Amino acid sequence: MPNITIKDIAEITGVSYATVSRTLNGRSGVNAHTREKVLQAAKELGYRPNIHARSLKTNQTNTIALIVPDISNPFFADIALSVNEAAYKRGYNTFLCSTNWDPEIEEEQLQMVQDQRVDGIIFKPADRSPDRYLELNIPAVMIANLIAEGLSYIEIDNISGGRQAAEHLIACQYKKLAFIGGAFASRSNSDRLRGFRQALQARGLDLSEQMIKFGPFSIEHGYKQIQTLMEMDEPPDAAFCGNDLIALGVFQYLGETGIQVPDAFGVVGFDDVYFAALPQIQMTTVSQPRMQMGSLAADTLINRIEAGPESPIEHILLEPKLVIRKSTRMLQHRIAFQEAA
Fold first, then answer.
1. 7-11, 27-31, 132-136: which has the highest mean pLDDT?
2. Tens digits of per-residue pLDDT, 104-124?
3. Per-residue pLDDT for 337 more than 80?
4. Which fold has domain 60-156+290-317?
5. Whole-number Å distance between alpha carbons of 64 and 82
6. Which H or E run includes 267?
7. pTM of the full predicted structure?
């Protein structure tokens, strides 16, 4: 099948070459009727722009890169879907990379996508230090609240999320709490722990170091760490997990050993990915608006690409929300807060 060109579309629609070009490049100066006619013809003919030729002319590739730590994690998969959808609506393709939380892999991928001449980068940092990202020479948006001059970020208030989890477990009358977190190098992870500790301290409670575990954001990590905790002389009776995958590992261990959730043990996750609401799980978790995060990141980046270097830096902090399901004692939660009021 021959390649369809702008000239072909112009001949079929009866409008000028320049008008077709302006329409397909999203520029102004084309009335709504003509724009619709051109776009419909392009769709029916299967027109695909010559990205290489366009990039030579405009110095843009209409491609952005998305770099995440773990694409197998449903949280990052949802963000990737949202970024891709929002970028596509703006006329951009998305180049996806996964770092496995390794700063060295991330550094290689950051360099690689710049060598590929992408127009901008969205990334979840694998390192806690913002200084590593100051040398990026193209527009970038972080999915993290690392403060770096010249970089925008989209993030949720992880401290608030950790605080909500602790307040809920306390209100549910769990007495000995544990934190099973993800990677120690993750800023979001440390902020969740900080908020968790703040809420405990506000109630005169303490979180011992033996009750804090770090590791991969994985099911296997959750299973291993809850096993270790439950073998202690004074085991916990509830756990706040760094994400829902870790919490799923906790569920698996508790189920295998016959420990009843939520009466004997309470579990709170983080993210609210698809499986958290499944009937056989019904996980209490802190929900992140991940689809909103992805679309905001894409729009923020593309606005910066199209506005040029003078465009403003944006720091957007979204609020998480505790979603109460059946892995914690819901009735006691309500009673405790009624009495407190």
1. 7-11
2. 999 899 989 988 889 999 999
3. no
4. Rossmann fold (3.40.50)
5. 13
6. strand 266-271
7. 0.78
Characterise 44 by phi-psi region: left (phi > 0), alpha (psi -120 to 50), beta (else). Answer: alpha
CATH of domain 158-288+322-340: 3.40.50.2300
Is a pLDDT exceeding 60 seen at residue 298?
yes
- Going by the DSSP 8-state scheme, the letter that residue 80 receives in this structure is H
Spatial distance between the Cα atoms of 5 and 233, rounded to a whole number of angstroms: 74
Q: Quick check: do 6-48 and 60-156+290-317 share a fold?
A: no
Largest CA distance in the chain: 82
Per-residue pLDDT reduced to its tens digit, 79-88? 999 999 999 9
Task: Kindly tell me if the per-residue pLDDT of 1 is higher than 70.
Answer: no
Q: Tokens for 58?
A: 């405009």
Distances, alpha carbon 22 to alpha carbons 14, 51, 62, 266, in Å: 15, 16, 15, 59
What is the secondary structure of 114-152 as a DSSP string? HHTT-SEEEE--SSS-GGGGTT--S-EEESS----TT-E
CATH class of 6-48: mainly alpha
Query: How many other CB atoms sit within 10 Å of the CB of residue 87?
Result: 25
